[in-house]
Amino acid sequence: MDRIGRSVDNLFMVIEDLRISNQRLTSLIYQLIGGHATMARNATIINNPTDLLDYLGEYENDYTLFVTPGTPIAYLERDEIDRMSERGTLGAWIESNWLPETIAIAVP
Fold first, then answer.
1. pLDDT mean for each 10 residues of the chain (108 residues)
2. Do the Cβ atoms of 67 and 102 come closer than 8 Å?
3. Are 66 and 75 within 8 A, CB to CB?
4. CB under 8 Å to 77, separation ≥6 — which residues?
5. Using an 8 Å Cβ cutoff, are 47 and 103 in contact?
6. Is the whole model's pTM more than 0.90, yes or no?
7. What is the edge-to-edge ordering of all strands in the sheet holding 103-107?
8. Closest by alpha carbon to 101, among 59, 66, 64?
9. For residues 75 and 29, is the Cβ–Cβ distance under 8 A?
10. Which of 74, 40, 73, 78 has the alpha carbon at shortest distance from 59?
């Protein structure tokens, strides 16, 4: 096998490892939310984009995680949330990236 072929194989292995790691992380977050009262006391779990926008308008949080099975976990820090709110793009970004199985975790 030539050097390019080995490099491509290595790239595919790295991508697969990242995919598996993301699945494990997503599963862990769902387990923490469902099984531990401490997680629920320290973070707010939001299940729809309208409630999330209301929450972000009312409360200050350090960052918000967006968890959707099968996709990379995304997050927004408070500064980015504020910038997007000021530009009027936060609602559109949330709506366009929200899937029915998405949950948001607002972390104080």
1. 76 82 70 56 84 91 84 86 94 93 86
2. yes
3. yes
4. 62, 63
5. yes
6. no
7. 44-46, 103-107, 63-67, 74-77
8. 66
9. no
10. 78
